[in-house]
Design goal:
The protein is an all-alpha fold. The chain has 7 helices and no strands. It has 2 domains: about 90 residues, Orthogonal Bundle (Transferase(Phosphotransferase), domain 1), CATH 1.10.510.10; about 60 residues. Its EC number is 2.7.11.1.
Length: about 200
């Protein structure tokens, strides 16, 4: 990324500003990752990652001070995930962070919760329906299920027929190739009879 792609102005709380933003070196989305790391540290430790009695002290600690780590009772993976790398080129990106195994596991749990909530919501809606509306819904669901099964049957049948057709084509091709080879041999014997020494005569 060229320097022309980097932002240079800033506003907000210094506790969450990245070193490159405070140093007026220009910054990009990696600066947001730094801010996220500051928030993560604050959630775990209940205090700012970089603290000071006044603005300048906080800025100096962010730009020149050591990078804090989480207490020992937190997992190694969470410490690795900490996004407080001073050099933005070495800092994790959002895509890098999302690839962590425990993040993936959390996303799966979230998806399961979402599906469960959707099921509860649908069940609640059904309970509000009149008996006639419930009957209509059940008929519609049964019709959808039949259509889904029929679609799967058609797709399976198509794959089966396609496979069978390819086998027949392959057999036909080999049969034609064998016949062509046989005709070619007969043709060569007819037009190029062998001499006494067994070699074709010219």
């Amino acid at each position: 990324m060229g320097s022309c792609d980097l932002a240079t102005t800033f506003t907000g709380t210094p506790y969450y500003m990245s070193p490159e933003a405070l140093s007026h070196r220009g910054y990009d989305s990696k600066s947001d990752i730094w801010s996220l790391g500051c928030i993560l540290h604050e959630m775990c430790c209940l205090k700012h990652a970089f603290e000071g009695h006044h603005f300048l002290c906080v800025v100096l600690k962010i730009v020149e001070g050591p990078t804090p780590s989480l207490p020992d009772h937190y997992s190694r993976d969470l410490n690795i995930l900490m996004m407080l790398e001073k050099d933005p080129q070495c800092r994790l990106s959002a895509a890098d962070a999302l690839r962590f195994e425990f993040i993936q596991e959390f996303k799966q749990v979230q998806q399961q919760i979402k599906v469960h909530l959707q099921t509860l919501r649908e069940r609640s809606e059904v309970e509000k329906m009149s008996p006639r509306e419930r009957m209509r819904l059940r008929k519609q669901q049964a019709a959808d299920e039949r259509a889904k099964r029929l679609k799967q049957i058609v797709e399976d049948k198509y794959k089966e027929n396609h496979h069978r057709m390819m086998e027949l084509r392959s057999r036909h091709f080999h049969k034609v190739s064998a016949n062509v080879l046989k005709v070619g041999l007969h043709f060569s014997v007819f037009f190029y009879p062998s001499g006494a020494n067994g070699k074709p005569t010219c």
